[in-house]
Amino acid sequence: MGFLTILFTKIIIFMLKIAKKNGGNLPGKLAYKMNKNIIKYFKLNCPVIAVVGTNGKTMTNNSVNRILTQSGANVISNLQGNNMETGILSLLIRNSSLTGKIKADYLTLEVDESYLPVVFKDLRLDTLVVLDFFRDQLDRVGEVESLILKINEFLKTYKGNLVLNNDDPNVARLGKANPENENIFYFSVDKYKFASEEMKEAGEGKFCPFCSTKLEYAYYQYAHIGKFKCPKCNFGNNEIYKLIKNVDLENRTFEIDDELFKIQFNSIYSIYNFAAAITATSLYNIKTEDVKQALENFVLNNGRQEKLVIKECETVINLAKNPTGANVSLRLVNEDNDPKDVLFVLNDNVADGKDVSWIYDINFSNLNNVNRIITSGTRAYDMAICVKNSGFPVSQIEAYLDLGEAVKALYSTKCKKYAISNYTAIQDTRQAIKSF
Ligand SMILES: [Zn+2]
Prior knowledge:
Elements: H1 2-18, H2 26-34, E1 43-44, E2 48-52, H3 57-70, E3 75-77, H4 85-94, E4 101-102, E5 106-110, H5 116-119, E6 127-130, H6 138-141, H7 144-155, E7 161-165, H8 169-172, E8 184-189, E9 216-222, E10 225-229, E11 240-248, E12 253-256, E13 259-262, H9 268-282, H10 288-296, E14 304-310, E15 313-319, H11 323-334, E16 340-345, E17 370-376, H12 380-389, E18 397-399, H13 403-410, E19 416-421, H14 426-434
Parallel strand pairs: 1-4, 2-5, 2-6, 3-5, 6-7, 7-8, 8-11, 15-19, 16-17, 16-19, 17-18
Antiparallel strand pairs: 9-10, 11-12, 12-13, 14-15
Zinc ion (ZN) binds near residues 211, 213, 232, 233 and 235.
């Protein structure tokens, strides 16, 4: 039955190719319809590395892929972020023989948190990386806490490598899910220049998950990510396997184990993603030189800190699908002293979550040298009202339902531009800016 399913879906893929269509998740969807247990059929002899977390999955998975590829390995990954069951199934079908054999040195996957137990019920998993947990599209996946408990449940019987962000209490707690698992590797990032003593943005995880005592923070890097510990039960005081030191966002460098790494990104949020990728790949004896070279040349051209020059204006496009993503994007704006305009594009399509009230958790209070805020997308006016309510001068806010009009207005002046878009808006925003 597995053979027929793969044969059938491979024919579909072939026909899509002839029609010059990619088909996205369609082969996976069809295969799943034909055979609910199809994942069992695939035979993998290589290590499987998976990345979960609310923010940064795509960037981390892409970095892991790049590092392994640099070392000379043949790596299969869902780099575009098709991270639900059918997307992963499509990837496996595309890369397997008719008998379900997958030839690769590594398989690396970003996986939607809520699908983790389903995907890995019948698929091998050697290393799981957990980045962070934030409120995200609540109406689709349910409360953050129930999601963490679901993953915790999955980890109770998992004995593979577990790479955890020790600066997020929501993640660090997972290290206690299975006391028999000895393969737990915590990473952490030392205090950076813009870390603060107060939590600046909305975040989760203020209380100890084991004894309910209020957690004490030495500092916050962003949102609830920072150096914390429970004063009562000592939760958080883990032995750190990889510690990132001397983060220098201006020069885009950081250090691990006295080695200097150069990168193309300048947000604290990307540093955490690299910390995760370096920790995960260090478990496979990759040469430091390969890691350095891979990261030094690593850029993403998909609206995640994508840099362009349009009409002589330096432009940065960033995806933000929840308050944390938006606040991290605004940090980049505020850490830049040059005058600039900011474009926000907000849609409320099904994949975005219909409820856009999360925009009220965006922190607009510290805007640094922002001339204008322009809003667009299906919820352009909600966004404009939210900015107005934060106290930003009304005369400097412009709202356009039409994205083309918004981009035209954005480039009507000469200064730096930052474009921040949510999920379904990001590709249209990139397109509108690039073709302007
Ligand atoms: Zn405690």
